[in-house]
């Protein structure tokens, strides 16, 4: 079974919304009896969180995302492939939390602002071809 691919929406995410942040503190911190702080880095890979904002998407895009989250990803529990439209890097990710939909204040009830939070499981350097996974990047679920 191949890994699902995040759907292509009619709008791109907001550029300044891209940012990686550690999903947990990458350092162990312990207080000692004399008040000094003992610090040691973790030796394991710390997953990254990637927040993504879509501003003013239409009802069709919202329905596409809802279907993808509920049906394709089993309410967000499965892995998927996502392409960063800013640099064409390919990510293997899971939803870190449910997709947040809010009515856009500039619309008339038919536009939505969407906040997604991905936990990055793996990054691939570039996307091969026109939106397709290259040989050797096909993943099995």
> Could you tell me the number of beta strands?
8
* Rg result: 18 Å
> Based on CA inertia axes, which overall geometry fits?
elongated
Overall pLDDT, averaged? 78
Specify the structural class. Answer: mainly beta
The ordered H/E elements are EEEEHEEEE
Task: Return the CATH class.
Answer: Mainly Beta
How far is it from the N-terminal to the C-terminal residue, by CA?
A: 6 Å
Largest sheet: 6 strands, antiparallel
Identify the CATH architecture.
Beta Barrel
**Structural domain count:** 1
Which residue ranges are poorly predicted, with pLDDT under 50 across at least 5 consecutive positions? 129-141
CATH fold field value: Elongation Factor Tu (Ef-tu), domain 3
Helix content: under 10%
Q: How large is the share of residues in beta strands? A: 25-35%
- Count of discrete alpha- or pi-helical segments spanning 4 or more residues: 1
Care to give the gist of this entry?
With about 140 residues, the protein is mostly beta strands. It is about 10% helix and about 35% strand. β2 and β3 form a beta hairpin.
């Amino acid at each position: 079974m191949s890994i699902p691919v995040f759907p292509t929406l009619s709008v791109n995410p907001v550029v300044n919304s891209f940012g990686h942040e550690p999903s947990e503190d990458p350092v162990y911190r312990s207080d000692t009896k004399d008040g000094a702080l003992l610090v040691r880095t973790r030796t394991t890979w710390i997953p990254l969180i990637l927040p993504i904002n879509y501003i003013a998407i239409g009802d069709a895009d919202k329905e596409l995302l809802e279907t993808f989250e509920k049906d394709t990803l089993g309410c967000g529990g499965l892995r998927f492939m996502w392409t960063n439209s800013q640099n064409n890097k390919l990510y293997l990710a899971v939803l870190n939390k449910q997709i947040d939909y809010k009515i856009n204040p500039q619309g008339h009830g038919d536009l939505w602002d969407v906040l997604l939070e991905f936990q990055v499981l793996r990054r691939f350097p570039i996307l091969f071809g026109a939106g397709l996974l290259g040989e050797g990047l096909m993943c099995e679920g």
